[in-house]
Design a protein that fits this description.
Number of strands: 25
Oligomer: single chain
CATH architecture of the largest domain: 3-Layer(aba) Sandwich
CATH class of the largest domain: Alpha Beta
Largest sheet: 11 strands, mixed
CATH topology of the largest domain: Rossmann fold
Helix content: 25-40%
Strand content: 15-25%
Structural class: alpha/beta
Number of domains: 4
């Protein structure tokens, strides 16, 4: 593996890269080398910015950004701005009147930890919305909710880098939030015990020596995996009630099973959890199964409304704060392959340059990853979720590159294989709905024997619907006797269930059929049947697709 996953490193100052004085030349040289190699390096300190600059002139210029005052102040590109309102001035007066030595920053108050009891009394007496944060022998009073982690997220956003592409390194109590905010939280060997216990990685050396080795080492260089246990994809629950998970970064998952078993449902579950955790993903959706992911914040769907942007324009939407779903179901095979091939070429270039997207989700993965299309992707890398009922069509590189294999058995059951174990589990519920093969079934003709054959009580009408568009068209205009006949046999809901495998819509239609069977006028229920299908599949929105933007 040589893909460089991490694109930013956030470093605490005191106790992390410095110890009782300025940072050593070794660690500063490592910072410069990392930045020269395209890594964003940030300084995240509890110090008041003016004091930091006075004690270490020029140090701020060694970094892409400085987060000071424990996350309350950001200095970037020569501009300094507070990230929170200052602590109430009443608190400063209360403490100084009682002889407490207090230093005031743009936002925070700093004092010795030995005066913590007085600071707590002041906050309680004045009924302030403030918090006390220890940093070894120092104490800071901050507005409630302000942390180094929050300041880091703000700074990374300004730099266009995802927290999931970042490493954070610290040593003290106030660094817990810093490490939690990043994909990988690292403690130097001299860190306080509580931080060591919660860190994803503990460096073998202290202070700047350990940090310099990290900056120049294989984890940041992409030749050694370092994966956090805090970020996990929840697949389901095993027979013993235990949660079944896989890592949410720097791994790949292959989902297989028979047609209709639930592969796309599980791929959508993986995708929505990754989006919910803030990862950037791109979903290649050849059958229109995943448009409902567009309901999630930070997700853009292209193609469902009949329009796809040019590939070069599409890449601009692959950002640290955005995920993309490509609904390709309205393209014929040739145009779909050409479009996907050009997108994948640009996407790989973008990924090499920026580290984004973190994941590429490929439904019907035998389509782009079969032997004819293996050049379009690099499945031997990391960050792929592949779903297919034809795993034998995948290239050998795919099988060799996948760390986790999920076999979907149907009826919500699956088996996870990987890391030397096999675990049977029940698939978790999804947040977003799953509409199976949306455009495939709305406009693509089924074989005649699988179409819906409309009948009266005494024989066929001659109308046969080969897809849902045709089905709804006939449903609008057919005789009410036809509706009554099919409602008595629950034929419409059974066709939706068995052919389209859409249990949700089938249940809705079954309830409407029951109303007709119970004596409700078929003509009054007809609009509800039509509306249920149209809303489920967005039939009124289906148009001829364009790929020229």
């Amino acid at each position: 593996m040589s893909f460089r996953y991490y694109r930013a490193v956030a470093l605490d100052l005191d106790g992390t890269i410095a110890c009782g004085g300025p940072p050593g030349e070794e660690v500063l040289a490592a910072v410069r080398d990392a930045r020269a190699g395209g890594i964003r390096v940030l300084l995240v300190s509890g110090r008041i910015l003016a004091e930091l600059e006075a004690e270490f002139p020029g140090l701020a210029g060694e970094f892409d950004a400085v987060v000071a005052e424990n996350g309350a102040v950001l200095a970037l590109s020569g501009v300094v701005r507070p990230l929170a309102r200052p602590v109430d001035p009443q608190l400063l007066r209360w403490l100084t009147e009682r002889g407490v030595a207090v230093r005031r920053g743009m936002v925070i108050l700093a004092l010795q930890a030995s005066a913590a009891h007085l600071a707590l009394d002041a906050v309680q007496d004045l009924r302030l919305d403030a918090q006390l944060v220890r940093n070894r022998g120092e104490l800071m009073v901050l507005p409630a909710g302000v942390t180094k982690g929050g300041g880091l997220v703000d700074a990374l956003s300004e730099l266009g880098v995802s927290p999931h592409s970042a490493i954070a390194v610290g040593d003290a109590e106030n660094d817990h939030a810093l490490l939690e905010a990043a994909e990988l939280g690292v403690a130097v060997s001299n860190a306080v015990d509580s931080l060591v216990a919660h860190a994803d990685l503990v460096l073998p050396a202290p202070n700047g020596v350990g940090v310099a080795a990290l900056l120049a080492g294989p984890v940041l260089g992409g030749t050694e995996l370092a994966v956090s246990g805090r970020w996990r994809i929840h697949l389901g629950i095993d027979g013993g009630g235990r949660t079944v998970t896989v890592p949410a970064a720097q791994t790949s998952v292959l989902i297989t099973g028979k047609p209709g078993a639930g592969k796309s449902y599980l791929a959508g579950l993986v995708a929505e959890q990754l989006i919910g955790m803030g990862y950037s993903i791109v979903v290649f959706d050849p059958e229109g199964d995943h448009t409902e992911l567009g309901m999630l914040n930070g997700t853009t769907v292209f193609g469902a409304d009949g329009r796809l942007p040019p590939p070069w324009e599409l890449i601009q939407f692959v950002r640290h704060d955005n995920s993309v779903v490509l609904d390709l179901s309205l393209l014929d095979d040739g145009r779909r392959n050409d479009y996907a091939r050009e997108v994948s070429r640009l996407l790989q270039h973008h990924r090499d340059r920026t580290g984004l997207p973190h994941w590429i989700v490929l439904d019907e993965a035998h389509w782009p990853l079969g032997r004819l299309h293996h050049h379009a992707f690099r499945p031997d890398g990391l960050g792929y979720c592949l779903a297919t009922y034809q795993p034998h069509e995948l290239t050998p590189a795919v099988a060799q590159g996948v760390q986790w294999h999920v076999t979907v058995c149907g009826d919500g059951e699956a088996v996870l294989g990987g890391a030397g174990v096999m675990t049977a589990f029940r698939i978790a519920d999804r947040r977003t709905d799953h509409v199976r093969h949306q455009h495939k079934y709305t406009s693509t003709d089924l074989p005649r024997y699988r179409g819906f054959h409309f009948r009266y009580d005494d024989g066929p009408t001659g109308a046969v619907a080969a897809n849902l568009n045709q089905f709804v068209d006939v449903l609008r205009h057919c005789d009410t006797g036809v509706l009554h006949h099919h409602s008595m046999g629950r034929d419409m809901s059974r066709w939706i269930r068995d052919v389209h495998r859409d249990q949700t819509l089938a249940g809705h239609l079954r309830r409407l059929e029951s109303r007709i069977a119970a004596g409700a006028p078929a003509g009054e229920v007809r609009p509800l049947l039509v509306k249920a299908i149209e809303q489920r599949y967005g039939l009124s929105k289906v148009t001829r697709i364009s790929t020229d933007g």
